[in-house]
Design a protein that fits this description.
Length: 88
């Protein structure tokens, strides 16, 4: 019960961050904010999925793949921003 509640709180935090960056993306149309919003939304959905799956479920490794994808999106966003600043 406590684990589900903590995963729900983490999901709320991730999704709040996603909305925060989505607002900045709408104002500035900067790709960095769009990528960050996407990554944090993915982490929020990941937390909800972790709360719904049982701890001994054999499909649990998918959660780590989703986290890896989210962090790779963040790394790509930073790389893309630095590459764009060198060109212009």
């Amino acid at each position: 019960m406590l684990r589900s509640m903590l995963n729900g709180a983490a999901a709320m935090g991730w999704l709040a961050c996603a909305l925060f960056f989505l607002r900045f993306w709408k104002q500035s149309h900067e790709r960095l904010f769009a990528f960050f919003s996407l990554a944090f939304a993915l982490l929020g959905v990941n937390s909800v999925a972790a709360a719904l799956l049982e701890s001994m479920d054999e499909r649990r490794y998918y959660l780590y793949v989703a986290r890896l994808v989210a962090f790779l999106i963040i790394l790509y966003a930073i790389w893309d921003k630095n590459r764009a600043s060198r060109r212009g």
